[in-house]
Design brief:
Elements: H1 3-11, H2 13-16, H3 20-23, H4 28-35, E1 43-47, H5 53-58, E2 64-69, H6 72-81, E3 88-92, H7 95-102, E4 106-112, H8 120-133, E5 134-145, H9 147-157, E6 171-174, E7 177-180, H10 184-193, E8 196-205, H11 217-220, E9 225-233
Parallel strand pairs: 1-2, 1-4, 2-3, 4-5
Antiparallel strand pairs: 5-9, 6-7, 8-9
Helix pairs in contact: 1-6, 7-8
């Protein structure tokens, strides 16, 4: 997706994109941020910060904040949402270039539903950017789409009929766009390869309405989810 397309998306971000900080139903973000045991003078780097929901909710825990987003239109909304935070450095840039400029300064690097490219090379560059920005002993908080959740959703929606899931290498088509979804075991391996030790891995559930489905009482007990993980830089 080019910058012009990202800017168009940024203008309708709140309506068109599942913002896991806003949508998740089990308050996992709060627990995972707490598990990072941040120092009092902590630095946050939020890669793919969108309209700033993570910074708005958790920014008070950090002395220094850098929010990186490719879409200038999303950054403009983030500045409004986080208007009370005058200490945020906003960068309209791609993550790989931003990481080189920022350097290894983060006590917590956040990257929520950003590493979804079907290109192995592009994903590898993003994982490397997380490693390059996170201090040794610091943490990264990552959310990625779950392939196991996608299979569960399709099994319920199709009611036992033949599934349409054809996820070679975890590639799933969503609204004419193909994204990379991750299996639980795969996440452990890719984090280790990137130089991180996995500390906490779980599910960030979100409403069925995000999947375009009605949320019944029975479905509410078995909501779809993204993988959320906290890992420490080696």
């Amino acid at each position: 997706m080019n910058r012009q397309e990202w800017n168009r998306l940024g203008k309708v971000f709140a309506d068109e994109v599942c913002d896991i900080v806003r949508e998740e139903t089990s308050d996992e973000m709060k627990r995972y941020v707490a598990a990072a045991k941040l120092p009092k003078d902590a630095t946050l780097v939020d890669f793919g910060c969108g309209v700033g929901t993570f910074i708005h909710r958790f920014g008070a825990k950090f002395k220094t904040i850098v929010g990186v987003e490719f879409a200038a239109s999303a950054i403009a909304q983030a500045k409004v949402l986080c208007a009370n935070r005058r200490d945020v450095r906003w960068m309209t840039a791609d993550i790989v270039r931003a990481a080189k400029e920022i350097g290894r300064v983060a006590d917590l690097t956040v990257c929520l539903n950003v590493i979804t490219s079907t290109s192995r090379a592009k994903r590898a560059a993003l994982w490397q950017s997380l490693a390059d920005t996170t201090k040794r002993g610091g943490h990264t908080l990552i959310v990625v789409p779950s392939l196991e959740s996608e299979a569960m959703v399709q099994a319920i929606v199709n009611r036992g009929k033949k599934l349409k899931l054809a996820a070679k290498d975890g590639h799933v088509v969503r609204e004419e766009a193909t994204q990379k979804f991750f299996e639980k075991a795969e996440l452990r391996a890719v984090l280790a390869e990137a130089g991180f030790t996995l500390k906490k891995l779980g599910r960030a559930h979100y409403p069925w309405t995000i999947e375009g489905e009605r949320e019944t009482a029975s479905r509410a007990a078995n909501r779809p989810w993204d993988w959320v993980c906290l890992a420490q830089r080696n």
